[in-house]
Amino acid sequence: MATMNQTLVTEFFIKGFSEAPHLQSLFFVLFLSLYTVALSGNVLIFVTISFNPALHTPMYFFLINLAMVDVLCTSTILPKLLENMVSVKTISYEGCMAQLFFFTWSLGAELLLFTAMAYDRYVAICHPLHYSTMMSKGVCMLLATGVWIISIINTSVHTCLMMKLTFCHSNVVNHFFCEIPPLLKLSCTPTYLNETMAFTADVFLAVGNFMITMLSYACIISSILKIRTTEGKKRAFSTCSSHLIVVSMYYSTVIYTYIRPSSSYSLDKDKVVSVIYTSVAPTLNPLIYTLRNKEVKVGLKKVFLFFRR
């Protein structure tokens, strides 16, 4: 089946957002700006945390992992998107499957990381006296390893199932990158197993992790409300408010995209939603976490002072 697949389709045509020349220029500038900010912001967070011993805590350990995931996501999608805007809008069959693999990997890893970060904030606020034990270096490494392993197993399953499909109706992908929903639309063989696995993964990775995260924050808010001083409440809430903003934006768009059957997909609308979790969220993550965090600001100043010498 895979041989037949590659015989029928050797490359895909990526439709993108618009074929109007003036809009192409606008979109190029927009996505180049998003990629530049996302890449520089996440690399800066990685460097800042790595070179500041004061930031070598569980919260920032997970933030480094999040920065790595965001770089993986944007570098998988945006460079090819920018290339397609200035040249022929095609991607090889192998390139499309590789893009699907790395994007789905980063998507699953990000969702799992959000849960790990929510658990870290839950322990820090609800069990502060046991924080060093419950979030020891070994526990953090175990959680991070689980995030990467589970996400790579997930993407391996989806990519292998996609490679078993036959694409013969059309090679025009009505999207700006190779994602599961638009590719399933092009298959001329049954996609029931693919849809079932995508739905199952979304229930587990998105809905399941979202519920765990919300439960963690319910406990966190309950603990914050028990703090007697207003200043104490503000300080406690500031440690988790940034994470809550990012989580709410990310989960809502991912659940919207993957929780539905393929027959109900509106690919034109889904393009706009996909921009949020492929481009906007990775760009905003460094800004949200740094602008609202005094410790990271101090670390950034030290990095800038070091490179100015």
The best one-word shape is globular
Helix content range of the residues, please? over 70%
Q: At the third CATH level, what is the topology name?
A: Rhopdopsin 7-helix transmembrane proteins
Order of helices and strands: HEHHEHHHEHHHHH
Gross CATH architecture:
Up-down Bundle
Strand content: under 5%
User: Which regions are unreliable across 5 or more consecutive residues at pLDDT < 50?
Assistant: 1-7
Task: Give the full name of the CATH homologous superfamily.
Answer: Rhodopsin 7-helix transmembrane proteins
Q: Main β-sheet: number of strands, strand sense, barrel status?
A: 3 strands, mixed
User: How many distinct helices?
Assistant: 11
The radius of gyration computed from the alpha-carbon positions, rounded to a whole number of angstroms, is 21 Å
Task: Write down the CATH class.
Answer: Mainly Alpha
Number of strands: 3
Write structural notes for this entry:
With 309 residues, this protein is mainly α. It has one domain (2-6, 20-308): Rhopdopsin 7-helix transmembrane proteins (Up-down Bundle), CATH 1.20.1070.10. The protein is 78% helix and 3% strand. The protein contains 11 helices and 3 strands; from the N terminus they run αβααβαααβααααα. The protein has helices at 2-8, 21-50, 58-86, 93-126, 131-134, 137-163, 180-186, 192-225, 230-258, 267-291, 294-308; strands at residues 11-14, 90-92, 172-173. Strands 2-1-3 form a 3-stranded mixed beta sheet. Helix 6 (137-163) runs antiparallel to helix 8 (192-225). It starts with a helix and ends with a helix. Mean pLDDT is 84; it is low at 1-7.
